[in-house]
From TrEMBL:
GO terms for molecular function: cobaltochelatase activity. It comes from Hyphomonas adhaerens MHS-3. CDD domains: CobN_like (cd10150). It is an enzyme of class 6 (ligase). Keywords: Ligase, Signal. Its EC number is 6.6.1.2. Pfam families: CobN-Mg_chel. The keyword Signal applies. NCBIfam families: PRK05989.2-2 (NF004644). Residues 1-21 form the signal peptide. This is Cobaltochelatase subunit CobN. PROSITE patterns: PROKAR_LIPOPROTEIN. Residues 131-1184 form the CobN/magnesium chelatase domain.
Amino acid sequence: MFRTILAVVTIAVACALGSAAADERPERDARIHIVASDFVLPSKLVRIAGWGKEADVTVTHNYLEQGGPGNWAEYDLVVIDAPLRGRAAQLIEDVMGQLNAAGVPWMSVGSGGRPARSGNLDPAAFETLSAYYEAGGERNFRNFLTYVAAWNSGRDTSHIPAPVPMPESAIYHPDAPDFFTDVSSYEAWGRDRWPADAPRLAVIISSTYISGVQTAVLDKIVHQAEWAGVMPILFWFDSMGETGIPEMLGPADVDLLASYTHMQNGEQRKAELAELDVPAILLLGNRSMTPAEWRKAAQGVEPAMTAVLMATPESWGMGDPIVVSGVENGEPVPIPEQIDLLIGKAKSIARLRHSDQVDRKLALFFWNTPQGERNMSASNLNVPASVEQIGAALREAGYDVPELTEDDILQAGQSMLGGYYHHDRLDDLLANGLAQAFPVSDYKDWLDTLPQEVTQPVFEKWGEPESHWAVRTVKGQKVFVIPSVRFGKLLFLPQPPRADKVGESYHDVKVPPGHLFLATYLMVQKAFDASAIIHLGTHGTQEWTPGKDRGLWAYDYPMLTLGNVPVVYPYIQDNVAEAIQAIRRGRAVTISHQTPPFAPSGFYDELRDIHALIHEREQLDEGAVRDETDARLADVVIEANLQKDLLWTEEDVRSDFATFLPILHDHLHELAQTATPLGLHTFGLAASPEHRLMTVMQQLGEPYYALLGIDQTEMFATEAENLPESEPYQFLERFLRGGEDVSGIADAAMREQIERARAYDQNLADPQELEALLHALDGGFTKSGPGGDPVRNPQASSGRNLFAFEPDKIPTPSAYKAGEEAFTGLIDAYKSDHDGQAPDKLAFSLFSSDAIRTLGITEAQIMHALGVRPVWGRGGRVTKLEIIPAAELGRPRVDVVIQATSVYRDQFDGLMRLYSEAIDELSKQDEPGNAVYAGTRRVRDALLSAGTDAGTADRLASIRIFSNAPGDYGSGVPDAALDSTNWEDDAIIAQTYLASQSFAYGTSDWGQSVASLGLFEKQLTGVDAAILARSSNVHGVLSTDHPFEYLGGLSAAVKSVNGESPALYISDLRRARPKMVQASKFLSDELRARYQNPQWISAMMDEGYAGTVEMLRVTNNLFGWQVADESMVRADQWQAMHDTYVMDARDLGLNEWFEEQNPTAQAQIIERMTEAIRKGYWDASEQTRRELTERWQELTEEAGADAGAQTTVEYIEDMAAGFGFGTGQGAPAADTSAAAAQTIQGQVMNEVLSPGDVRPDWLRLSSIAGLLLVMLAGALLQLRTSRQWTLNKGQY
């Protein structure tokens, strides 16, 4: 018993002694160490350390990536200030383990709410300390430090004020004594601060700005807004709540919503933005540069931030990203001119929202494409018809816009374009109300307000504005004469040429916009005082002018042109990639519009006859009759040159017809099933019910056909006019047009197909385009929607603000798997074409649009070539590319060169960096079958031989990615190719391409010019094949110039290096399974299925004038391919184009139609064909040359067509003289500017007038008399003069 008592007493004494020892605190200041993630800026930590000195607490810090401070035991408390997620999670776990082992008290914060964990820390102290730290703000941090000092020394802490929690939702104002929990109390407090009608700007912020005591940017926004007469509402809310934004803003009736924080719960945010129904924009902070550094940087937003802070909110409908802050001394600091952009946008949106439609002024820009004074178009959009529809909708909505017809629009548009091609016409345009006068002095005053680094390049390139060809003196004042016409309060005008002069060949595409370009947009902003701008159709040039790739500076040219005028941009739904540029660089809200409808290509003429003959042969037994039929078949196939499309020779066809025949039959079926666009889209109008039904049939596709149980190979093997008689069409028609009840379908799978068809049909029948346009012009919110090719993606929406798939999730796992099939197909195709030899090196041209549509199949194809695989992290984001070990790969690696378009560079730079890192690693792995290593060694040796130092050679030799310079767009190749009268050697294509694309993108050298080292050329050495993807049924390789620009340019560049062109392949991703096709065959098939097809031609003829421009575009693009890679276009294909579009071999009445709609377009087609002859690409027969010459003379002399480039005209004249047609050039078309003025009511501005000026009667009468004299003089002048145009199209 005694021993038990003694033991108890001993233990009690020991505990008392231990407790006394524990209560002894060192006679020194408390020491806190903060371990932070890079999300925490240094200024917060420095401030805490400063307040710590006042509280006798020593505060130190380091960042997770730097490791620990060395001896944890020196500290009384360690605070881990970092979110427990992402790459920081493991580092935090390591730190926690070290602290637990050392027995040092610690707590973790930064994950929102109460910290998840602590260690070696009394629970009560942990609860109080964490509450102080997480709530933040100066008051809480000071009390936190006071508490630590008392707690560490064992003093009483009860007198220290309790933590003041941060409200879950509140409104912040730097001059207010406290936060506001609702809008009403905030309005009551600030009633005297803001005008009663002040525009209301709501900015979503994170409470961490306040808790982290980093409010300089917020305070600047508030004070700058109030100085401008704007009411600021800066607030945060519970992001995980169900009604966060509308509930917080309540009755505030805000005009513009901006977000300056990363928001979560995306689907809820998307719904809230639609409910709030005000435009929503993005505010961003650059955390790696000072404002001065950021202003000079090529990139406005770090690549790592793009997906989370831009792409994700864009999917909710947000846009117009504005960088409002940089970092100095570890603290966010405002960029004042960027905040001006925000406030200016708020004021301009408020102006729309609080004005009557009749008082609003709108400026509608259209595009001059392809080159030629009669050409106005946009991608797959009937521009004149669309303007008519928009004008009617505006008028019906109450805008001051008169009734407009297509003829009014065409006459005005073409007359105004004439001023850019014939400068002497500007005076007439001004006199007839088809131009506006804008004082040069106003323009120069504006230039004087801009930074010198912005204006100096303009003056150096373009000289003084007074000497500009568009400047005239009116009443002693120098003015720009700007082609434009006022239809009421709608200003209708062509976008001026970016280089100031149509036809001026500029191959340095990184060139500042010219004086007239800038002056035109300034006139729209200031003199016309536009309430909003409409950029009509895909696409113009404003958003492609030089500047940052994203997150632009206020003084970048794209921002200067627009100022703060809201931009509404009707954009084709299939081109999401370039729509994103319009949103990010054009400050636009896009209104997606539908593509044309689609139909199977079907058969026509020779295809019909050959197919019928094949089926006739199938009924025959072996013998003389079948042999004779085979011979007839071979004859008609060879006459139609179909064997060339299939890459067979005439000899092989005749000698091995049995093998050829099934290949031919399958080819015909494939052509018949090809989805072919029908005509163009008119903005706001749905396609006809028949065309919609045909489109829906193809949207359903193979699963629907299979359920019908029909022979899918033959189902569309008929003439196009008979397609509505096909079983797939007839069955759909019963339920979608005939009113049959779906419930009567016994098969559940077929019932589901028809229900889906109904939804697809409704989507096509209700475009919602005009409604969305009008709503945007009212200052409302435009809902977001996915884009894409409607055949591949029937969910593609119209009337929506387009967005793209998040770039850091590409490729998806399914795309990576499909990429393997595409890579295997490519290797097999190459081997088949090259006697079993596999390629060692491949070049890829990457387009952003294809990456978005396919989610990265081509990107995955490159990865399989290299032998790497993606590592997908949180949320499906690709975090790295992992090298597949050689033993596991089991085959040689294939070296690659990647040419990224400028849009791709802007949107997928994160993936480009992952490629660069992986290629760097592969370049170091000396293993059998590693062509990347071998290629890098070869390039390194070549650089060393050329005198490059070893360090630079080592660094650059592994770079495989090339593109434009940062902030530079386009290649210049289309300009060069079509400017064929100004060069003799088509080597200019390779030179232009290489000059524009010789900027290297590697891990250490991002966007560095390497032209002087010839690095791009060195990497192209040995390229065996070049690949381009096509993933849209809208576009092939001839419908737009981008394929010949990039794949053709790449081919020309490889040829200039290796002496021969590479094999060219199209990765055909338009259907479910990837397919590799030789590029020349892809082009041939497109010609057969579309441009030789009466179905396509007739649908374009139904579009009137707009259809003529599309036919010209195809001809120009065929010529572009001819110049870029001569092997792509055959002489018989030129002959077929001549027979179809000049001789009307399909008997469609084309010549009469061209004469009625746009004779100049047919004359330009003939001139382009003549250039193919003149340049030696096409040795046309004498008969063909005679026909071209004779028709051109008819057009220019009798139909009023404009003549083209002088060199081409002289060549035609020489041919005419040889044929005895006479040597005089056909008379140019009469000047239409005066005639147009008789029917188009434009406001005459031969002097600078205010909008309300009224002319007296005597002045009107004298103007009419003067007009008649001008018309007479113009008619006389036409008898004596000739005109020329120069083909030179700016392409981006």
